[in-house]
Amino acid sequence: MASRYDNHREALLKGGLSGDYEDDSIDLLQYFTVTCYSGYGDDEKGFYTVYRNLFESIVKEEMEHSKVEDEDDEEEYPSFGDSQSDYDTLVAFVRKRDRRVQAHRKLVEEQNAEKVKKAEELRRKQKLSQAKLAEEYKEQSWTAMSELEKELQQMEAQYGEEFGDASDSEEVQNSDEGADAEQPDEDELTIDYYDDLYCPACDKSFKSDKAMKNHEKSKKHREMVTLLRQQLEDEENSLG
Prior knowledge:
This is (spotted green pufferfish) hypothetical protein. It comes from Tetraodon nigroviridis (Spotted green pufferfish). There is one protein chain. By secondary structure, the chain is mainly alpha-helical. It has three domains: 2-87, no CATH class; 98-163; 172-239, no CATH class. The chain contains eight helices and two strands, in the order H-H-H-H-H-H-E-E-H-H. The protein has helices spanning 2-7, 9-14, 47-64, 87-97, 99-163, 184-196, 209-216, 219-239, and strands spanning 198-199, 204-205. A two-stranded antiparallel sheet has the order 1-2. A hairpin with a 4-residue loop joins strand 1 and strand 2 (204-205). The longest helix is centred in the middle third of the chain and has 65 residues, at 99-163.
């Protein structure tokens, strides 16, 4: 009907450009009363049949006066239906054209787009935070390893200073105490080994060559060697 009105707007407002315009469109006024149908059945005079036929005629009339050139762009109108028609189909048709529904759909789409944008920004910040934490953890790990290595080096140096020379408690007694009588060969090897690590001047035995060499460089050892030589010279002079 809208297309028909647009095409004959001037004629309808002024009674026709030539004054003899005749309106041959469907008279809708007769359908604005309950007397146009009988009952709500699907028979020929029933509510659904009467208005279904009316709407089909309106659609046909609308299409005849439509300016749409491409048939693919023509609007597809649903049938008025009958007493058994699916209500959801009608609701879907109305909602598709309801401006309130369209405005609400647009608002929902904008809100969803904003949510997606915020979610992406949150994921980006989380990735940056995770990368930063990983870098900090890596730096802390390297720092901890460096500190641990320094501590180990300090401990080794400290042990070297403290245990380089054997203390009195580390002296090995050249006796048969604790020896196994059934293994004389091992005892002899042990005695020979400790003889090489024995300092007669200081009367001390050592556990390793390194400890023995460190001892020989000590001030105490040199003093004892000097004293022992002096005693030997005095004994030789007295015998001479």
